[in-house]
Amino acid sequence: MRGRALAATLIFAAFAAVPPLAYWANDPYLIVIASRIVAFAIAALALDLILGYGGMVSFGHAAFVGIGAYSVAILGQAGITDLMLQLLAAIVAASAFALVTGAISLRTRGVYFIMITLAFAQMAYFFFVSLSAYGGDDGMTLSSRSTLFGSDMLRDDGIFFYVSLGLLGALFLIATRIVGSRFGRVLRGSRENALRMNAIGFSPFRYQLVAYVISGAMASVAGVVLANQTKFVSPAFMNWHVSGELIVMVVLGGVGNLIGAVFGAVVALVLQEFLGAFTDHWQLWFGLILVGVTLASRDGVGGLVRRLTGGKR
């Protein structure tokens, strides 16, 4: 636990140091990349809550990211630009979608659960493709970023980054409390042996459904951040390959390790930028690295580092 607390402190401290480093290096693109990493770190954190602790392999979590992004676009076009109101709308919409789809999906197990979450996500994808008022398949460009308490301070990349980082930090603390609570222990017990948990008086279905709704709501926050970071929304945000990328991030960081999910997002996106600068076929090398990490360590990059340095878990 101390090791993970130290890792979390170091990662968030490194995040906080990005804007000063970018200004010192006169490279504002660093802040843009860091903001994108924060958005995907929130989504990966949300996914790991159910995948790592609930054993629910969702292949449709990008749908919640897309719902969050479109909450910004739809409300913005209606004249509601306040970030807090957009976050509230995104969380409510994503929670409702998660409640309905989760109640159906959790009636299944294994590969069937994977496929039905994918099916629901694709349904959401094609629904937003059909919304011609919001750009349809082409998406739509946002006129500006959200306002915050009536101010347009989020137009500044540095301020926007720190607000996004604050959201990530708050969600990380909430997820940590959930995992460490009685609810989290029941969730892990349901992952290990649902029949035994049911026999001692706990309903695995209810706990898993609540966790699924919480995870979906958290992922929608990532969509709100991503929409503001890119100032663009598109159904592509909720396509199946985005869900696959989130799973890759969780695997890279170590399944069942909340700070590992954040670190996995950092590693995945930094590798994409680094490898993409050298070759157009960066996906090949990224895939080889992913295979190597997963074969060498079940705990992702963090576990591999510990193994190489002789450290303890």
UniProtKB/TrEMBL annotation:
Cell compartments where the protein resides: Cell membrane
A Pfam family assignment: BPD_transp_2
Organism in which the protein naturally occurs: Paracoccus albicereus
Keyword flag Transmembrane: yes
Keyword Calcium: no
Protein topology in the membrane: Multi-pass membrane protein
Keywords: Cell membrane, Membrane, Transmembrane, Transmembrane helix
The protein's name: Branched-chain amino acid ABC transporter permease
Main location per the UniProt record: membrane
TM stretches of this protein: 32-51, 58-78, 84-104, 111-134, 159-184, 205-226, 246-271
